[in-house]
Amino acid sequence: MDTTRSPTASPRHRLSTRRRAGSQAHHHPAHDLHEHGVAAIRNFLRCHTCYDAFPVSFRLIVLDTKLTVKKALQCFLLNGVVSAPLWNSQTSSFAGMLTVLDIIHLIQYYYRTTDFERAATEVETFRLESLRAIERHLGVAPPPLTQEHPSNSLFDAAKLIIQTHARRLPLLDSDSETGQQVVISVLTQYRLLKFISINCHKEIQQLHLSLKRLRIGTYVMSPSPDPSNPYFPLATAKMDTSVFDIVHIFSERSISAVPIIDEDGVVLNMYETVDVITLVRLGAYQNLDLKIREALTQRSSDFPGVVICTASDSLGTLLQLIKKRRVHRLVVVEGEEEEKRGGKKGRLLGIITLSDVLRYIVGHADISEPRMKPSTASTEAPSSTPIS
After folding, report:
1. d(Cα 111, Cα 109) in Å, to the nearest integer?
2. Are residue 218 and residue 347 in the same domain, yes or no?
3. 271 three-state secondary structure
């Protein structure tokens, strides 16, 4: 599962996978052991607060809504982040999150409504507070204003993340003297799952059932109900697809990555929203007409590669991988078992996101309505200074 692929390596070498002993267990003792492990992890989350998941040292960046998009992108670049809480300095209140997807929506809007020169000029002065109007124009759902109190349990936070389809959850407190809101931190899906992987070693060793048996992830339907997309419901692209065509997919589906496949469906690479932002940071708005094969040459040299697995890999193996490295999604490909049944090794089979993993771990708990306001409990906390 921890096989990664370099953008320059040959597809055959990049798609080597390893089968895990135990991931195909179907007998009742293994199932019972798995269920016991999952239940123990859920109990662990109930017994720990969001504060507990904070790293020993971390940096919090909060952006003022009066900031221009260009300066916000520069801030992302300088600090190595892809999202940040927004702060309305006029009302002294939390104003949601700025994410890469917001920038994708903005790019989509300009490509639909104006020319390159005007887009380049307007982006110089476009303020973050105007992004919601762009989303309304495109007809895409605005990001939720969900927030959580850092002293609430990790299980409640996980439920809220799943219910709102968010990838990150702002943690807010109130100043004990002024009563004003204070942004304390942001809990991401990755941080939450890594906290589990570090602290639930014994429980994770019990999770031997396969990812597909557990129905974790989205898999290609066969036969496809959409003749134009043999990999339905997944979105895919080819090396000759234009960057903007993928931008449209990102914006329309609110997703952050698309697998790049060859004519046989073998996964060659992955194109992500952060790759688009790299082009925009360079001021290369017109470069969105580039083909993917050309755009990949401008990707950051520290790109970690595509993390792949097979459907027979186990949930336990996946969580162990998260402990070792920063993983945001896994591409499921056909392995030796599928090849024996006439498949093709390395062909796209599905995608597993951290949302899928967290949703399974939370289970069928009551997540009918998100809480849109923080808990009334208040503890003294350091203030956050917006960047303006």
Report:
1. 6
2. yes
3. strand
